[in-house]
Design brief:
Elements lengths: L7 E5 L4 H12 L3 E3 L11 H11 L3 E4 L9 H4 L1 H21 L4 E7 L26 H21 L3 E6 L1 E3 L12 H15 L3 E5 L5 E2 L1 E3 H14 L6 E3 L5 E2 H12 L4 E5 L14 H7 L7 H14 L1 H6 L2
Parallel strand pairs: 1-2, 1-3, 3-4, 4-5, 5-10, 6-9, 7-12
Antiparallel strand pairs: 8-11
Bound molecules: guanosine-5'-diphosphate.
């Protein structure tokens, strides 16, 4: 019998980009999944979170809801991003504690790491310096869940884990240019440029920043494995552990999408953090797993999906 069979699981953000892939997998494995919708439960209100726990009666809570996006939305709505994520995290964990859930899985972000360190980011670096100013309003809020979990462990013996995710991409992502992360933004730009027979595509910044990119379905698998196998307050990084420059990403998307024009770099747009690559040795050791999907293969699947679902994908915010 699988770990998930007959488990009741609450997935906040379960209708979102990452959440939908987790929900599909959980249902396949026989879990009873509850996905709170915003119109029914406003997770920035504690009473709504308490009601949600009553209605879902979960054994496991995966807190995946977040109001976030790429580098640009952090410039457009920094205050809303700060408030909603901070309060949601605090409320959902408090309600889960009151409901005496067996396990709480906090979905964190690589934006929580210090923004100016050299080299790969290990879990032990989490508190080693200031966050990058382009994402501090988001990264700090998710990091507070790790503090809350420590405090709740001490006082209530609350069982929580904290997973730190790198940049995701894949089917179901947000392709709106104000909100999208770089893979979705570039997929849309290159596919549209090809359709329009355009001469060039504008890509932001210098092309030098390094990120790593995790295919969303691999990420969903990793989270469910960690929820089953990991029981420690120390955070766990989830990612491929391999850096890719924005230039290389843009050229790969250009090649997979079949666009033959030029790339134009717009240096008036921000580069953000120069390097964000996670050390994933803890993940490999404990989950005995590495993401199977290569960047090129993941981009091929995503671009096929995007071309087939362009209208609905573009409408999603
Ligand atoms: P970050 O990882 O939090 O910095 O967020 P993003 O995924 O939005 O951006 C990563 C990098 O991609 C930054 O250096 C951006 O300047 C660069 N980039 C290049 N073109 C684009 C684009 O069209 N949209 C976005 N969001 N980023 C872009």
């Amino acid at each position: 019998m699988s770990f998930w069979e007959n488990k009741s699981v609450l997935v906040t953000g379960g209708a979102g980009f990452l959440g939908q892939h987790m929900v599909q997998r959980l249902e396949k494995m026989g879990a009873h999944v509850f996905v709170p919708r915003r119109k029914d439960y406003d997770l920035t209100v504690l009473e709504a979170c308490v009601q949600c726990m009553r209605d879902a009666a979960p054994q496991i809570v995966i807190h995946s809801a977040a109001y976030y996006g790429g580098i640009w939305i952090n410039q457009l709505y920094p205050g809303k991003i700060y408030y909603e994520n901070l309060v949601m995290g605090a409320n959902v964990m408090e309600a889960a504690r009151l409901a005496k859930v067996e396990k709480f899985v906090a979905i964190g972000t690589a934006c929580s790491y210090p923004g100016y360190l050299e080299g790969e980011l290990s879990e032990t670096n989490l508190w080693d310096g200031p966050l990058h100013e382009s994402v501090v309003n988001y990264g700090m809020t998710k990091k507070m869940m790790a503090v809350q979990a420590m405090a709740y462990k001490k006082q209530y013996n609350f069982n929580a884990i904290h997973l730190i995710l790198t940049n995701l991409y894949g089917p179901g992502d947000t392709y709106n240019p104000d909100r999208s992360h770089v893979p979705a933004a570039l997929i849309r730009k290159f596919v549209e440029a090809k359709l329009a027979n355009a001469r060039s595509v504008e890509v932001w910044g210098s092309g030098a920043p390094i990120r790593e990119f995790l295919y969303v379905e691999d990420c969903a698998d990793a989270i469910l494995k960690a929820a089953e196998l990991y029981n420690n307050l120390a955070p766990m990084n989830i990612g491929p552990g391999k850096g890719t420059s924005i230039r290389e990403l843009a050229e790969t998307i250009q090649s997979v999408s079949g666009f033959n024009g030029k790339i134009e770099w717009n240096r008036s747009k921000p580069d953000g953090q120069m390097k964000k690559v996670l050390n994933v040795s803890r993940m490999k050791q404990i989950l005995k797993w590495e993401p199977p999907t290569s960047l090129r293969n993941g981009l091929e699947k995503t671009i096929l999906w995007y071309e087939a679902n362009k209208k609905a994908a573009d409408a999603r915010y």
